[in-house]
TrEMBL record:
InterPro entries: AAA+_ATPase (IPR003593), ABC_transporter-like_ATP-bd (IPR003439), ABC_transporter_ATP-binding (IPR050763), ABC_transprt_ATP-bd_su_PQQ (IPR022467), P-loop_NTPase (IPR027417). Belongs to the ABC transporter superfamily. NCBIfam families: PQQ_ABC_ATP. The keyword 4Fe-4S does not apply. The keyword Secreted does not apply. Keywords: ATP-binding, Nodulation, Nucleotide-binding, Transport. Residues 4-224 form the ABC transporter domain. This is ABC transporter ATP-binding protein. It comes from Sphingomonas psychrolutea. SMART domains: AAA.
């Protein structure tokens, strides 16, 4: 499958077990919320998925590539939206995206096409030539998502993607991410907000480094 597969993954910081035998899958076209309170292990899982750290045990497959054996191929299939902004505030959106396209080996016409596509997917095509600093918080966050899509990944990871935004901006972002899943992306959306899981097709609840439940959002009544 072209989605994400996490099999029996464990990770320790010294004595502290941050992830303990974590297994779940996100299929292509699925919007999966990863729900857990602070300290549950969400950031640790993202660090594993972006290969900032390496699992002590278990395996992770990204679009069919084993992240330990084929890290470059696996990472090329993942787009990540971090909590921290990555765009240069004083450059235009397009110039920022061209820079990130370049990191993925895209330039010239193929970069321009990929950038236009990513911006259109977030409803931001008409703002491409604005300087990032001139955009409001919601639009900046949408540009961060577009940035994560320029290399046309199969899997999109979002870490607390709506923190600090108002309700309208949050709704716009969740709607766009939903549409992205509709195009076949596997989406993993980390959040500590129970309210945010209603929009998901699948909810994985992480608690103290373990998967406590995994299923449709409707089955979540009474969780964390
Ligand atoms: P979340 O992102 O869900 O808040 P984290 O992955 O940051 O959870 O943390 C999971 C656990 O690992 C917590 O108990 C946290 O204290 C611990 N932890 C996270 N980062 C480190 C670190 N660099 N060193 C030691 N312990 C850490
Ligand atoms: P040029 O069009 O002149 O090749 P680039 O757009 O590639 O310029 O950017 C020039 C330099 O500016 C890059 O090598 C990079 O170090 C820095 N840069 C550009 N965009 C960013 C960004 N979003 N974040 C951090 N550094 C950036």
């Amino acid at each position: 499958m072209n989605g994400l597969e996490i099999n029996h993954v464990s990770y320790r910081y010294g004595e502290r077990k941050a992830l303990d035998d974590v297994s779940f899958q996100v299929e292509p076209g699925r919007f999966c919320a990863l729900l857990g309170p602070n300290g549950a292990g969400k950031s640790t899982l993202f660090a594993l998925l972006t290969r900032l750290i390496v699992a002590d045990e278990g395996a992770i497959q990204v679009a069919g590539f084993d992240i330990a054996r084929s890290p470059r191929a696996a990472l090329a299939r993942i787009g990540v939206v971090f909590q921290q902004p990555t765009l240069d505030l004083d450059m235009t959106v397009r110039r920022n995206l061209r820079y990130f396209a370049g990191l993925h080996g895209l330039s010239g016409r193929s970069a321009a096409i990929a950038i236009d596509r990513a911006l259109a997917q977030l409803g931001m095509a008409e703002r491409a030539d604005e300087v990032v600093r001139s955009l409001n918080g919601g639009h900046r966050r949408r540009m961060e998502i577009a940035r994560a899509l320029v290399h046309q990944p199969d899997i999109l990871l979002l870490d607390e993607a709506t923190v600090g935004l108002d309700a309208a901006a949050r709704q716009a972002i969740t709607d766009h991410v939903h549409e992205l899943a509709g195009t076949g992306l596997a989406v993993l959306w980390a959040t500590h907000l129970v309210d945010e899981v209603a929009m998901a097709d699948q909810v994985v609840v992480l608690h103290r480094g373990r998967v406590r439940s995994d299923g449709p959002a409707g089955e979540l009544a009474g969780e964390s």
